[in-house]
Write a structure and sequence with these properties.
By secondary structure, the protein is α+β, with helices and mostly antiparallel strands. The chain has two domains: about 1-180, Cathepsin D, subunit A, domain 1 (Beta Barrel), CATH 2.40.70; about 185-405, Cathepsin D, subunit A, domain 1, CATH 2.40.70.10. The chain contains eight helices and 22 strands. It has helices spanning about 125-130, 140-145, 245-250, 290, 325-330, 360-370, 390-400, 410-455; strands at about 20-25, 30-35, 55-70, 75-85, 90-100, 155, 170-175, 190, 200-205, 205-210, 215, 230-235, 240, 260, 265-270, 275-280, 285, 305, 305-310, 320-325, 330-335, 350-355. The strands form seven sheets. A five-stranded antiparallel β-sheet has the order 7-6-21-22-8, with no helix packed on it. The chain starts with 19 loop residues before the first strand and ends in a 72-residue tail after the last helix. InterPro entries: Aspartic_peptidase_A1 (IPR001461), Aspartic_peptidase_AS (IPR001969), Pepsin-like_dom (IPR034164), PEPTIDASE_A1 (IPR033121), Peptidase_aspartic_dom_sf (IPR021109). This is Peptidase A1 domain-containing protein. Belongs to the peptidase A1 family. Keywords: Aspartyl protease, Hydrolase, Membrane, Protease, Transmembrane, Transmembrane helix.
């Protein structure tokens, strides 16, 4: 098929399985039918007995729904049916038993459409929940709940062909990777935005690279970082719908390109190679140039820009870009719904993983082989410095908080300062120690000066000398004697030194005994000593 037409994917992953036609709405101008083999590690044991989801019986309820999709609509009663899908049996699956449906995909002979999004987006589940029921979960939710120990993801490999009559092979798997792309398990996990309980598969795009440069990103989504874009990767959309400034930056500088207001797309010379890439985190994912300017459906001598400068009414306010198959053909895309906890009752937060499938230099050669001209060489993209605030902003949005964004220059400066942080802390600790030593020395010095000052104020007092006690003559009974006159203080030395010591007098004698000197013994001086 031409590279602009809807793709037919035919997978032969296991000879025991037959192909299952699973219709999807394209969300764009042309429909496509995906012939997919759905595989699960635990159920590939026998050939499937049906080529479609097998609804064994239908129990019609009183509730009705009228739904409008990107293309088409449906009306009918909400019903329950037992479903067998890829060897897994669901005893009671909520569906719409459509009495009126309009969609181009129905012209391919299919019986219905299977959604691959979150249960939160299901109108069936919302209607049943409002009526007090909790059994309106999506088919994928019920498939994962059937075996909580199995991985809860789906994966797409969408391919292309440059031959008008060629078929392409792609893959759609549940619970395991395509053998050719198992390396995706080592790819970074890209959290959804918001992180917890998202409505759609929306993530933060960190940069959009065009040649050697990039285009500034903005977002109108509440809570999103100002220098990021919230994008949704949708396998049901053929083209990518992006802001006008992005599309103008892509095609506006291409020689001979012009914008067609009638088509609402850029018209680009088919030989003009436009090299672009997406950046999530620090990983860069080149887009094949053949998908950036596909051949026009109305005139195969003209090519159109597959990045369309239009807003999408569906999901308004929830994302800035709607990324479709023109980008996803360059990626192996994993949608992980979150693994169950140890109890098998609660799922973790969802995330995505991407694996780049395009070598830009090889893609340039393929492009010019099909379109003419000379291939480019040494194609490189200058990955942007991603601020570390992206994850915190995502968490803030999930919790309804306010996020603060840092510029790339400020982030770089902070990262450099972080390297010097240990040395700065060591210098600060040394300074603190020096200050403590100086403060201690100052306190000791002030205490010494205060002691000397007190000593100067009391000169008659020496260290270690006791203060003289007041002397008062007492009687033999220990009470004051005399007439009660006020005692006059007389200092008495208590120092027992050679120059002041007087030997005691001999004992008293009776009868006026006299010493040889002629003095009476009772005439010696009275002493209180």
């Amino acid at each position: 098929m031409p590279d602009t037409c809807g793709r037919v994917l035919k997978v032969a992953q296991n000879t025991l399985c037959n192909s299952i036609p699973v219709p999807q709405t394209s969300g764009s101008r042309e429909p496509r039918l995906l012939f997919l083999t759905v595989i699960r590690r635990c159920v590939i044991t026998s050939a499937l007995t049906s080529t479609r989801v097998n609804a064994l019986s239908v129990g019609i309820q009183s509730l009705t729904l009228n739904l409008t999709y990107g293309i088409g609509s449906t009306y009918g009663h909400i019903s329950y049916t037992a479903v067998e899908f890829a060897g897994i049996n669901i005893s009671q699956q909520a569906i719409i038993d459509a009495s009126n449906a309009s969609n181009p995909i129905l012209s391919y002979g299919v019986d219905g459409i299977v959604g691959l999004g979150f249960t939160k987006l299901s109108s069936v589940d919302a209607a049943l929940t409002k009526s007090g029921k909790s059994d309106g979960k999506s088919l994928l939710y019920n498939l994962f709940a059937d075996n909580p120990k199995e991985p809860n993801f789906i994966a797409f490999a969408l391919q292309r062909t440059l031959e008008a009559t060629g078929d392409v092979e792609g893959s759609f798997t549940i619970g395991e990777y395509d053998d050719d792309y198992k390396d995706v398990a080592n790819s970074p996990k890209i959290p959804t935005f918001p992180v917890t309980d998202p409505t759609r598969w929306t993530v933060l795009l960190d940069a959009f690279l065009i040649g050697q440069g990039s285009v500034a990103l903005t977002s109108t989504v509440s809570g999103a970082p100002s220098d990021k874009a919230v994008v949704m990767l949708d396998s049901g959309t053929s083209y990518t719908y992006a802001p006008k400034a992005v599309c103008d930056a892509m095609y506006g500088n291409v020689a001979g390109a012009s914008y067609s207001s009638e088509l609402g797309q850029w018209m680009v010379p088919c030989s003009a190679e436009v090299d672009v890439a997406l950046q999530f985190g620090s990983s860069v994912y080149p887009i094949h140039p053949i998908d950036v300017t596909p051949v026009s459906l109305s005139d195969d001598s003209l090519c159109v820009g597959s990045f369309v400068p239009q807003t999408v009414s569906v999901g308004a306010g929830q994302f800035d870009w709607l990324i479709g198959d023109n980008v996803m053909r360059s990626l192996y895309t994993v949608y992980d719904f979150g693994d169950y906890d140890s109890t098998g009752t609660t799922m973790g937060d969802p995330y995505m993983q991407l694996l780049a499938l395009v070598d830009p230099n090889a893609a340039s050669t393929e492009f010019h082989k099909a379109r003419g001209g000379t291939a480019s060489g040494n194609i490189t993209y200058n990955a942007q410095n991603v601020s570390s605030s992206a994850s915190s902003a995502t968490a803030a949005a999930a919790s309804g908080g306010t996020s603060v964004e840092l510029s790339a220059e400020l982030t770089s400066t902070l990262n450099k300062l972080q390297g010097y942080l240990p040395a700065l802390l060591a210098v600060m600790a040394l300074n603190a120690l020096v200050l403590l030593v100086l403060a201690g020395a100052g306190v000791a010095y002030m205490c010494r000066r205060r002691g000397k000052a007190r000593a100067r104020k009391t000169p008659g007092r020496q260290s270690g000398a006791a203060s003289p006690m007041p002397l008062q003559r007492t009687s033999s009974f220990g009470m004051p004697s005399g007439s009660g006159d006020t005692h006059v203080y007389q200092p008495v030395s208590m120092a027992l030194t050679e120059d002041t010591f007087v030997p005691p007098s001999p004992a008293f004698s009776k009868g006026g005994l006299r010493e040889p000197s002629g003095l009476r013994m009772d005439d010696r001086p009275k002493s209180v000593a």
